[in-house]
Amino acid sequence: MAQQGDLLLQMKGVQKRFGGAIALSGTDLSIRAGEIHALLGENGAGKSTMLKILAGVHVNDGGTISMAGRSFQTGSPQASIEQGIAVIYQEPSLFLDLTLAENVFIGRQPMKGAAIDWTLVQNEAARLFDELGVPLDPKRLARGLSIADQQVVEIAKALSMNANIILMDEPTAALSASEVERLMTVMQSLKAANKAVIFVSHRLDEVFMISDFITVMRDGATVSENSVEQTDMQKVIKEMVGRELTELFPKTEHDIGDVVLEVKDITNPAYFRNISFKVRKGEIVALAGLVGSGRSEVARAIFGIDKYDSGSVEVNGELLQKGSPIVSMERKIALVPEDRRQQGLFMIAGVDRNIAMESFDRLKGKIFLNFKKERTLTETWRDKLSIKFESASDPVDSLSGGNQQKTVLAKWLATNPDILIVDEPTRGIDVGTKAEVHKLIDAAAGEGKAVLMISSELPEVLGMADRIIVMREGHQVAELSRKDATQEKVIAAATTGSKGA
Amino acid sequence: MNSFISRLKPRGREGSLGIILLVTVGITGLINPRFLTGDGTRDLFTSTAVVALLAIGMAPIIIMRHIDLSVASTVGLTAWFIADISAKNPDFTWVQCFIIGPLIGMIVGVLNGLLVAGLRLPSLVVTLGTLYIVRGAVYVISNSVDYNAQEMPPSLLDLGQKVFFGVMPFTFLLVIFAMLITAWFMKYRKAGRDCYAIGSNPHAADLVGLKVFRRTFLAFVFSGAMAGLAGVFYLMRFAQVDSTAFYGQELAVVAAAVIGGVTIAGGSGTTIGATIGALLVQTIQGGLAAIGVDAFWKSAINGLLLIVAIYADRTLARKSERTLLAQRIKERA
Amino acid sequence: MKFKLRFTWDTSILILLVVVWILASLTTDNFLSSINVSQIFSNTSEITIMAFGVIFLIITGEIDLSVASVLALSSSMLGWSYAHGAPIWLAIIIAMVVGSLCGFINGFLVTKVGLGSLAVTIGTLALYRGIANGILGTNTINEFPEFWTGFGFDTIGTSFIPQSLPIIVIFGIGFALLLHNTPFGRRTLAIGQSPEAARFAGINVVKHKIIVFTFTGFMAGVAGVIYTFRFSTAQADNGVGLELLVISACLLGGVSIFGGIGTMWGVIAGVLLAGSVESWLTLREINAQWRTIVTGILLLTSVAAPVLINKAKAAKIRAGNRS
Amino acid sequence: SAKTKLKIAHIPKLGTIGYFQAADKGVQRACKELKATCAYKGPTEITAAAQVKEINAAVQSGYNVLIIAANDKDALVPALKAARKKGVTVVTYDSDVAKAGRSIFVNQASSEGIGNALADSAADLAGDSGEIAVLSTTPDATNQNVWIDYMNKRLASAHPNVKVVATAYGLDKPEESTTETQGLIQKYPNIKAIVAPTSVGIVAAAKYVSGSSSKGKVFVTGLGLPNDMKTYIKDGSGAQASLWDVENFGYVAVQIANSIVNKKQSVKVGKKIKSGKGDHGLKKRVVIKGAVGNEVILGPATVFTADNVDNYDF
Ligand SMILES: Nc1ncnc2c1ncn2[C@@H]1O[C@H](COP(=O)(O)OP(=O)(O)OP(=O)(O)O)[C@@H](O)[C@H]1O
Ligand SMILES: Nc1ncnc2c1ncn2[C@@H]1O[C@H](COP(=O)(O)OP(=O)(O)OP(=O)(O)O)[C@@H](O)[C@H]1O
Ligand SMILES: [Mg+2]
Ligand SMILES: [Mg+2]
Q1: Which of C139, C142, C227 is the closest to D74 by Cβ?
Q2: What predicted TM-score, i.e. pTM, was given to this entire model?
Q3: What whole-number distance in Å separates Cα of residue D190 and Cα of residue D201?
Q4: Is the shortest distance between the CB of A47 and ligand 1 below 6 Å?
Q5: Rounded distance, CA D204 to CA D220, Å?
Q6: What is the mean pLDDT of chain B?
Q7: Ligand 1 contact via A426 beta carbon (within 6 Å)
Q8: Does B144 touch chain A (CB under 8 A)?
C-alpha cells in the first residue's frame, strides 16, 4: 500500500499527435498518493488527451510514463484498469440496455462459483449509490437516465474498481450543487485512503476548494505545477490563457435596432418552461446557465428541431411555424449547433460539400448544381474566415477543431441569416481561433444580424453579450444587462436561481 | 413494488412470447384437434429443431449488433459432408457425426469471426460473402452427388427417430439443453454479459476494456458450430441431402430470433426467446398446413407475422420511453 | 507537402472491370463479340435497374431486402391485369404503381412507425412474394404482345444493343445526375453521413427516406416489367433471390453499407463487373457452381480491400512520422 | 455430306439433383458412342433465368445441340428461337417448351400413362376405397398438374371409391414437403395413401411416415428414384415408387438429336426415328402428336417394389 506522498505516477515529455494536429507537445505530470490533483487549461489544451493516454485509449507518440517506478503500459484500456487506473470520461459511456448495477461492474462482476453473483452485484451497486447519496435503483436500465445520473453511475463505476488513481474528466460539469458536494466528500475519502485523483474542471472555485496540486496546461504543454497554497485564481487564469483576457473578446459597440426575434412563453415541460425574450437587430444576447439547464433545447425549439407545447416564436413580428427547420431557414434563421461533429458537420464529406449544404438555392440552375459557383462559394468563405485546409474536397474530419468550427459558421453565414443562433461556438477550439470566432460573431452583429449565443464559458458570455439571460433547470431565472453583469451574479443565478424564479 | 416489477421485466418478454405461443397452439388445436395429439406435438418439435438450434447460435451475434447470414449455407455444407464421410466410412456412428458436424461449422465461423472481429468489417456484408462462398463450395465439392437414407449411419437415423414420453424428440431435447446452457451462460458468465454490453454500446465496450475481438470472434465460431450441429440435425430429420440442402433459409432463422425478441439493434434478447420465436414460426407454419390454408398465402402470412412482431417490440420500447419522459416532466416541474 | 492519394474502391473497380475485359477477351474467343456484350447487358438489366434505386437507399443508411419480391409482385400484377383484359400499357402502369406502393409501405414502416429496415424488409420480402403467390396461384401468364416480349430480348436492328439498354442508359444517366448533381442527391448522401446533422441542416429526413424507399420500389417495379417481357412470363417466383445480388452489386461498386458513400458509376461498374466475370466464366465453361464462389469472393474483397489498404497506408504514415 | 461433329450441351432443370445426374449418365453414354463432345451445364437454381444464361453461353461457345429439361415452358422460348436461328438443334426432355422453341420433345411416358399408373398404385395401396391425398411440387409445375388431372380421371373411372381429399404443395424442398405431409395427415386423419408425383416430395413424405405412428396406416407412392426410396420401400412402411428409366432418358434424347442432325430424319408425326442401338429395348421410336407439338415417348415407368428395387442404381 502506497504511503501518503509517495510518487505514484510520472509523465515526462509526453507527446501526442492526431494527424497533423499536435495535441500534446511534451507534457509533464507527477501524481502522488493521497492527493487530489487538478489539471487545468483552456478547451483543447490537451487535458482529455492526457487522461485518455493513461486510460489506454490513446498511445503517446513520445515521452515516458512510469507508475510506481515501473514503466507504464499504454494502449489498452484493459491494461490500464489492471494497472490500477479508473476513468470517468467527459462524455458518459454507459450501456443503455444493461442495469445500473451491471454498468458499474461490467467486465468485473463478482463470481460465486462458476456464475456471476447477481445479488452481490446489486448490493454492491446499491451500497455505492448510497455512498454517493443518490437514490438510484440498481436494477433499472441505464436507458433514459439523465446526463447527471449517468455521470453518477460512471463515478460509482470508477469507485468500484478500487483503483489507485482515479481520473475524472469534468465530472462535475453535469452535476447539481448538492451532487457536487457529495462527490467532493467521496473524493476526500479516496484521498484519505491514500488514492490519487486527477481532476479536470473548468469551475475554478471547485478546483481551489478541493485540490492539493494544480497543473496548468496550455497548447499541449505543461505551464506550471504548484501546490494549491502556492498559487491563486488570478495566476492560474493567466497561465491558462497565456495573454491578457481582453484580447479574447473583441466586442465593439453597434447600433441596436428593432426586435427581430421574439420568444413568447415557450414551454416544453421536459426541458424548459415559460421562456420569453427578445433579440434585436445588431444585438448579441447570451443564454447562460449550467450544463443541462436546457439552453440548447430552447435554441433547438426556436430553430424547429424539436417542438414545444405552448408559447410562440415571432420573427420580425410574424409568427414562426414550429417544428420545421426548413421554414426557419426560409425566415432567415441559422443555428450553429453545439456538437459540431454530430450535428454541425458531415465529417466524411468535403469542406466544399459542407459549406454548400445550406445554399443550394443559390448554387443551382433550374435543376442541377453549378459546381463552379460551389467552388467560388467555398473560396469566398475560406478567405473571409481564413479557414485552413489543403483542398476543398478534403473531408472536414481532417481539419483541426477550430477550422471545423469555422466551417460550420461559414455554411450558416453563407445563408446570410437575419438571426444567428450559436450554441457553444468556441467549444474545444484553441485560444487564438477563439478570438477569431468572437470577431466573426461580433462582425455578424455589426452587419445588423440578431445574435443569440449560448455559452458555458462565463468570460465569453460577459465579454461578448449585450444582454445575458440566465437559465436554471429549465427556468429563466435572471436577465442582466452588459453593464450590470458580473461573474458572481451570473453564477449565483445559474446555481441558486436567486433573482427571479 | 417498483423493483418487483423491474425484476419481472427481463422475464416478461419471454413470458408474453410463451403466452402468445400457447394461444397460437390452442387456436390451431381448436380448429384441428389432431394438432394437439402426441404426433402433432412431436412433429412441431421435430420440425422446429433445426431452426431453433440456429436461432440459439445466432442470438448472441444479433445481441452484439451483428448478423450471420452464412448459417444456412453452413448447414448445407456440414449435412453434405457428413453424409459423404459416412457413405465412405460405413462403420461411422452418430458419435462421429456429432463431432465432425460442429467442427466443420466452426471452420466457417472462424472465417467469419476473423473478418468481422479482426478486420472490423460489417458482418452483413462478410456473411453475405461467405453465404455464397460456402454454398459454392458445397456445389463444387459435392459435384452434384446426393445421398439417401441407405448411405447414412443407421444409428444416426435411429437417433433422429427417437422420441421421449411420446412427444419429445431427441433432437429437440438437445435444443432445450443448448438453450438452457446458453441462456445460463449469457446471464451468468462475464463473456455472456459482455455480448450485451458490446451490442448496447460498441464504443463504450472498447473504452471499458472489454475483450471485443475475442467475444465477437467466439460468437461467430459458436454460431458456426451450432450451424454444423444443425447440419447433423438436418440429416437426422430428412435422411437425404444434396448440395442445395437448406438453401435460402438464413432469413427464416433471423426472423425466428427477431420474433423471439432478439432486437436487430443489439443489446437485448435471450436464447430462450429465440427458441420460442422459432417454435412460434413453426406452429404457425404447421398450423396453416393443418388448417389447410392455401399454400399460396403462407409466405404472405409469415411476412406479416414478422412485421407485427417487430412492431410489438417497438411499441413496448416506445411505452417505456414515454414513461421515462413523463417521469422527467414530473422532475422538472 | 502531404501527397494526397485517397484510395477509393469505386475507381479501383473500374480498373478491375477493364482488367477483366482484357483478360476475358484474351482467354476466350468471343467475349467482346457483339452478342456477348449484348447478353451481358441484358442478363444484368433487372439487377442494374434495381440497383439504381437500392444505391440511394443504402446511401441513406437503410437497406431493402424486398426488391426481388417487389419485382415478382409487380410482374404478377402485370400478368394478372393483362390476363384480365387490361390493355398492355395500363398493365405496365399498374405494375409500376404496385412497385412504388410496395416501396412506400417499406418506407412508411421504417420512418413513420420507426422499425428497422433490415427486419421490416425481411418481413415484406416474404409478404410481397406471398401476395404474388396468392394472386397468381398456379397460373403463369405467358401471352404478351410480340412487340413487348421482343423488347425484352431482341437487339436494336442488327446492332449488339439490346432493346432494354436505352432504358438502362436513360435511367443510369438520370440517376447519376440526380445523385451527383442535384440538391436531392446531396441530401441523400448527407443523410447517410449523419442523420442528425442532416436534421440540423434542415433536411426532412423522414420525407426524404420515404421518397427514396418509394422510388426503390418503383425501380423494382420497372425491373419487374423488364423481367416479365424478357422471359415472357409473369409468375410469382420471378426473380427469387435477386435481392442479395442487387445488394452485392451495390457493395461491389463501392457503396458503403454504413451509408453516406457511393457513386453511380461505381455501382454500374460493379454490376458490369459481376456480369462480365459471370459471362467470362460461362464462356470458359466453368461450372455455375464456381460462379457462386466468385460472387462471394468479390463481395468480401469489396469490403476488405479498402480496409486493408487504408490500414497499410496508416502503418506507412506512422512509420514515416517516427523517422 | 460429312457428318456434323456434335457438340452437345445438356441443360437440366437443376444441376444438383440425383434425377438429372442419372439422366446425364445416359447423355454421356450416347456421346461416347457418337464420339461427340458434351457438357453438363446444370444451373444452381431452378429458374428459367438461370437456364437462359446457360443457353446463350452454350450457343456462343459453339454448341450445336441443346438437350434441355425446361424450367418454364414459355420463358426459354425467345432464347431457344434465337439459338435455332443460328442452326442449333434443340431437343427437350422431361419437361417441354412451346413448339417454336424445339425440334422435338422426348416425353418420359404419355401423361395419361403416368396418371393412370399413379392412380392404380394409390388405389392398390388404399385397398381400392377410402381417402387419399396428393403432395405435389410447386403449384405451377406443368407436368405434375397434367399427371394429377389424368390420375383423377382414372380414379373416377376405374376406382370410384377412392377419393382425393386434398392437394398440397411441397415446393420440391424437404422442409416444406415434410410440413405439408404432416399437415395432410393431421387434417385428414383417415387418408390411406399419399401420392407424390415428385422425386423430392415422395422421399420427404416416405421419411415422415416411416418415422411416425402413421407407419403401416398411411402409404406413400408416386414418382421417385430407386436409390432415394430403397430404404422406405424395404423398411416395412410399404411405400411404392415408380419411375421411367432416367438414364435411358438422356441417352435417347441425344440419339434423337443425332438422328435429326446427321441422318436428316424428319420429325413429322408417324415417322420412325432412330434412337440408338443402346436404347434399352427399342432402336427406333415413333413420332406422335403430343400436347404441345411432336414428341416421342420414352416408355413405361417401372414400379419399384421391395422385390426389384435392388436391381436399379440411379
Ligand atoms: N481523436 C482526435 N482526433 C483528432 N484530434 C483530436 C482528437 N482528440 C483530441 N483532438 C485534438 O487534440 C487537442 C486536445 O484535445 P483535448 O480533448 O485533450 O482537450 P481538452 O483540454 O480536454 O479540452 P476540453 O476542455 O474542451 O475538454 C484539441 O485540439 C483536439 O481538437
Ligand atoms: N441523452 C440524454 N438523455 C437524457 N437526458 C438528456 C440527454 N441529453 C440531455 N439530457 C438532459 O436534457 C437537459 C438539457 O440538456 P442540454 O444539454 O440541452 O442543456 P444545456 O443547458 O444546453 O447544456 P449544455 O451546455 O451541455 O449544452 C439536461 O437536463 C440534460 O440532462
Ligand atoms: Mg476535455
Ligand atoms: Mg447545450
Answers
A1: C142
A2: 0.87
A3: 20
A4: yes
A5: 10
A6: 89
A7: no
A8: no
B249 inside 8 A of chain D by CB = yes
**Ligand 4 centre and the CA of A100: distance in Å?**
25
Residues 6+ apart with CB under 8 A from A268: A297, A301, A306, A307, A308, A309
Q: Which residue of A has its CA nearest to C5?
A: A394
Instruction: Dump pLDDT digits (tens) for D55-67.
Output: 988 988 889 999 9
Nearest to C204 among A326, A346, A390 (CB): A326
CA distance C193 to chain B (A): 16
**Start-end of CATH 3.40.50.300 domains in chain A:** 7-94+145-241, 247-332+417-501
Please give the pLDDT value at position D29.
Answer: 94
Residue B224 corresponds to which amino acid?
Answer: G
Q: Do A356 and C186 touch (CB under 8 A)?
A: yes
Q: Measure A250 CA to ligand 1 centroid, in angstroms.
A: 25
Distance A91 CA to ligand 4 centre (A): 13
Record: contact D53-C292, CB cut-off 8 A: no
Contact D54 C288 (CB under 8 A): yes
What CATH architecture applies to the domain A7-94+145-241? Answer: 3-Layer(aba) Sandwich (3.40)
Give SS3 for C169.
helix
Write out the residues surrounding ion ligand 3, Cβ under 5 A.
A 48, 90
Q: Supply the pLDDT for residue C4.
A: 41
Mean pLDDT of A202-231: 88
Q: Are A461 and A277 in contact (CB under 8 A)?
A: no
∠D31-D35-D38 over CA atoms, to 5°?
A: 45
Residue A454: phi and psi, rounded to 5, are: -110, 130
Chains that touch B (3 or more CB pairs under 8 A): A, C, D
In this structure, which CATH number among 1.10.8, 1.10.287, 1.10.3470, 3.40.1000 belongs to the domain B37-332?
1.10.3470
- With 50 as the cut, is the pLDDT of residue B221 above it? yes
**What is the band of A246 on the pLDDT scale with cuts at 50, 70, 90?**
low
Would the CB atoms of C303 and B302 count as touching at under 8 Å?
no
Nine cell digits for residue A361: 438555392
How far does the CA of residue C60 sit from the closest CA of chain A (Å)? Answer: 13
Q: Provide mean pLDDT across the span C153-179.
A: 83
Amino acid at A267: T
Question: Per-residue pLDDT tens for C251-304?
Answer: 988 899 889 999 999 999 999 998 999 889 888 888 778 888 988 998 898 888
Write down the domain spans for chain B: 37-332
Give the integer Cα–Cα distance in Å for A155 and A168: 8
Residue A398 CB less than 6 A away from ligand 1: no
Cell numbers for C249: 452489386
In CATH terms, the fold of domain A247-332+417-501 is: Rossmann fold (3.40.50)
Interface with chain C: mutation pick from B62, B299, B305, B313, highest number of C CBs within 10 Å: B299
Cell of D100: 417454336
Give yes or no for residue C120 having a pLDDT over 90: yes
> Ligand 2: which residues within 6 Å by Cβ?
A 146-148, 271, 289, 291-297, 338, 456
**Torsion (CA) B281, B286, B290, B293 in degrees, nearest 10:** 50
pLDDT band at residue A1 using 50, 70 and 90 as cut-offs: low
What is the pLDDT confidence band of residue A214, given thresholds at 50, 70 and 90?
A: very high
In the structure, what pLDDT confidence band is assigned to residue C317 with cuts at 50, 70 and 90?
A: low
Question: What was the pLDDT predicted at B35?
Answer: 81
At C23-70, the pLDDT tens digits run: 999 998 888 887 788 888 888 999 999 999 999 999 999 999 999 999
List chains adjacent to chain D, taking adjacency as at least 3 C-beta pairs closer than 8 Å: B, C
User: Phi, psi (5° rounding) for residue B329?
Assistant: -60, -40
Write down the ipTM of this complex: 0.85
How far apart CA B113 and CA B229 sit, in angstroms, is: 18
Average pLDDT over residues C156-164: 74
